[in-house]
Structure of Glycosyltransferase:
Amino acid sequence: MPLPLAATLICRNEEACIGACLQSLADCAEIIVVDSGSTDRTLAIVQDFAERGFPIVLYRRDWPGYAKQKQFALEQARENWVLSIDADEWLDADLRAALPGLLEAPAEVGGWRLPRVLTLYGETAPPPASVRPDPILRLVRREGARFDEDVLVHEGLVVEGEIRDVARGLLRHERGLRLDAQMPKEILYARLKAEQRIAAGERPSVLKLVFNPPLYFFRIFVMRRVFLCGAPGFIHAMTGAIYSFMAEALHFQMAREKRAK
C-alpha cells in the first residue's frame, strides 16, 4: 500500500536527475510535478514513470518565481502529509524506510527537517558520514503549511506546530556542477536575495559586507566539517562565500541605484 504522502516538485530541463528523484518517490500516494517549460527530455521521463504506474499528476505552468511555483504545487496535494523535494534530490533507502514512522508523528508535530547532503563536483559518493548534513524542512502536514511568497530565493516552508529533526537516512542532493556552470546560478541567487532585501526596506551593512562571506565559509568548511572532503569541499565552501559576498555587494549597489532615482 502506498504511504499517505504527496510529493511535490517543480522542474524545468531536469533530464539529468529527475529520474532518480521520481524513482525514490515510489512509496508515495501522490507525486505532483509542475513543469515550467522544459525543452529537453524531462517531460518524456515524467511520462515514462506515469506509464509505469507512478501516481504522477503533471501540471504545465509559466514560471512565477520559486516560492509561488512551489506553493502552487503544494496546493494541488490531497494527502495529509507533503514532501517538498527538488528535481535534483532523492531519498536514500534509509530515509525511505523511515517515512512510515515519520508520518505517524504526534498531532503536535507539524513538520520534519530532513538531513540533506550534497555530492560535490567530481565525486560519485556522498560526503563522509562525519560531515554534518544540512537539516532542511521538507516533510510537513499539508494543513497549516505554506511557502512564504515574499521570499524570492532559498524559499522555505512555514508550518504550524513543532518541527523535529530526522535522525535516520539522507536526502541526497546530486547536482554537482563545475564552477563555471555553478557561478551563474550563485549570481542569480545573490541578485534575488538583494532584490528581496530592497523590497523589504532593509539597508545594506558594511559589517555584513566584510564579515558575512568569511563567516559563511567558516560555517560550511569548519562547522559542517566539509574540510574532510579535501579540495572539492574547499571549492564548495568558497563558492558559498562568494555567493554571500555577491548578495551583500549587490545590496549596496542596488540601494545606491534606488537612491539615485
Residues 231-260 form the longest helix (30 residues). The longest strand covers residues 109-118. The mean pLDDT is 95. DSSP finds seven helices and eleven strands in the chain.
